[in-house]
Specification:
With 65 residues, the chain is an all-beta fold. It has one domain. Helices cover 0% and strands 31% of the residues. The chain contains no helices and 6 strands. The radius of gyration is 14 Å and the shape is elongated.
């Protein structure tokens, strides 16, 4: 997953944002139950990733890497 901030037509950055709540045993951004988060790159913007039960906000789910 890659997240980028966009530039407007006049060269100013948009205020990009993502709100991502996790579910039961799942990360807000990343893996689900027993799943790894994989490769996550964030290039600007505002990120709000809330951890689910026994998981990361950004990264793996329960028992994931």
């Amino acid at each position: 997953m890659m997240v980028f901030a966009r530039m407007s037509d006049i060269g100013l950055p948009y205020m990009s944002s993502i709100e991502s709540p996790g579910g039961a045993y799942a990360a807000g951004i990343g893996g689900g139950n027993n799943g790894a988060g994989g490769s996550i790159n964030i290039y600007g913007g505002t990120i709000s990733a809330t951890a689910g039960l026994d998981a990361a906000g950004i990264g793996g789910g329960q028992n994931g890497d």
